[in-house]
């Protein structure tokens, strides 16, 4: 290919302040406190300066609130793709019944399209929540891809840390028992594949983890590692990029809002790793992370990446297997949601 770079994808899960507070078990989330008015302009400037077009996975509840409409419209106006990140951002989405999942996805879809002018073609479950029912709903609604799988063995450790620093009740802990996935998720593929469904196929683009070792490589993890050693954090990232090229993995890199926000922006989210860093220091390191990413790969939004994968005939086809099934006796919908 004359030395052409392989494509890779970049996305940002637009989890808002209230959704972090809700998952953490903090009071006050019901009023839907937001940092989108600060985050979105900052992120859009940062991406424009680096000539990056990415995918923003938007929570439907945010799109339904008038106070967020200008910020969300600016994302699509800047030429970025918008994806569906559920309506209520409940990481126990896999416990919903199939009709409830269908309602959740459709409701978010409607509000996101009204707010941004774009109908989402991709979906990522909150907290990497995924189920056979979710995949069926996405395929029936004509989605181009799902991006909810997180192939790592460290999910239980991440969940244990999150629970340790939370103020959750036993009932709330039970709901979140599958947050960040199970150990067996580490055996899932790192490369894209198709799910085999009753009425067709659905493309899955996993959140990339380090090939062979299946260690997380979110920008958030690298930023956290930098609080101990910036040199080692970047060495870890360079090694990951090298392994991706050796293993012929086209990475799907995940960003989070708190990669752009620091201790000078909010003090309410100090439980999140690397939130002791000021925003300027974070942005400087994030700039280096993405510079290296672009040096190795042609970085595009997930929709463009997915469209290039659909015609391929050699992608594996995988049967959906999920141990945790819907539990109709769990009351998952939270009071205060629109």
Task: Give a written overview of the molecule.
By secondary structure, this protein is an alpha/beta fold. It has one domain: TIM Barrel (Alpha-Beta Barrel), CATH 3.20.20.370. It has twelve helices and ten strands. Strands 1, 2, 3, 8 and 9 form a five-stranded parallel beta sheet that branches. A five-stranded mixed beta sheet has the order 4-5-7-6-10, sandwiched between helices. A hairpin with a 2-residue loop joins strand 6 and strand 7. Helix 5 packs across helix 6 and helix 10 runs parallel beside helix 11. The chain is globular and about 50 Å long.
Put the structure in a nutshell.
The protein is built from 12 helices and 10 strands.
Please render the helix and strand layout as text:
Elements: E1 7-13, H1 17-24, H2 36-49, E2 55-58, H3 60-63, H4 69-77, E3 81-84, H5 98-116, E4 122-123, H6 132-140, E5 145-146, H7 155-164, H8 170-175, E6 193-197, E7 200-204, H9 219-226, H10 230-246, E8 252-255, H11 279-296, E9 298-300, H12 302-309, E10 317-318
Parallel strand pairs: 1-2, 1-8, 1-9, 2-3, 4-5, 5-7, 6-10
Antiparallel strand pairs: 6-7
Count of alpha/pi helices: 12
Q: Roughly what is the average pLDDT, rounded to an integer?
A: 90
By oligomeric state, this entry counts as single chain
**Fraction in helix:** 25-40%
Radius of gyration using CA atoms only: 19 Å
Largest sheet: 5 strands, parallel
The name of the CATH topology is TIM Barrel
Shape: globular
CATH architecture: Alpha-Beta Barrel
Query: How are helices and strands ordered from N to C?
Result: EHHEHHEHEHEHHEEHHEHEHE
Give me the CATH superfamily.
Glycoside hydrolase/deacetylase
Share of residues in strands: 5-15%
């Amino acid at each position: 290919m004359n030395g052409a770079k392989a494509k890779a994808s970049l996305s940002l899960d637009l989890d808002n302040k209230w959704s972090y507070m809700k998952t953490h078990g903090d009071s006050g989330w019901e009023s839907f406190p937001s940092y989108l008015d600060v985050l979105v302009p900052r992120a859009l400037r940062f991406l424009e300066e680096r000539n990056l077009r990415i995918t923003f996975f938007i929570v439907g509840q945010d799109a339904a609130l008038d106070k967020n409409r200008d910020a969300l419209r600016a994302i699509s106006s800047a030429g970025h793709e918008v994806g569906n990140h559920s309506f209520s951002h409940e990481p126990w989405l896999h416990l919903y019944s199939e009709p409830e999942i269908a309602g959740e996805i459709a409701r978010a879809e409607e509000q996101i399209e009204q707010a941004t002018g774009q109908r989402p073609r991709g979906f990522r479950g909150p907290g990497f929540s995924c189920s056979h029912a979710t995949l069926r709903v996405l395929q029936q609604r004509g989605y181009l891809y799902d991006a909810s799988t997180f192939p790592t063995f460290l999910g239980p450790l991440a969940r244990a840390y999150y629970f340790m620093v939370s103020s959750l009740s036993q009932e709330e802990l039970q709901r979140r028992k599958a947050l960040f996935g199970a150990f067996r998720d580490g055996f899932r593929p790192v490369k894209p594949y198709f799910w085999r469904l009753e009425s067709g196929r659905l493309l899955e683009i996993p959140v990339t983890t380090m090939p062979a070792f299946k260690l997380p490589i979110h920008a958030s993890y690298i930023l956290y590692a930098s609080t101990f050693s910036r040199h080692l954090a970047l060495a870890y990232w360079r090694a990951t990029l090298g392994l991706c090229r050796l293993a012929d993995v086209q990475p799907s890199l995940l960003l989070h809002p708190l990669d752009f926000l620091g201790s000078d922006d909010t003090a309410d989210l100090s439980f999140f790793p690397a939130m002791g860093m000021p925003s300027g220091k974070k942005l400087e390191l994030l700039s280096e992370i993405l510079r290296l990413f672009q040096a190795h790969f042609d970085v595009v939004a997930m929709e463009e990446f997915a469209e290039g994968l659909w015609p391929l005939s050699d992608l594996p086809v995988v049967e959906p297997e999920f141990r945790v099934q819907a539990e109709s006796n769990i009351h998952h919908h939270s009071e205060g949601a629109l």
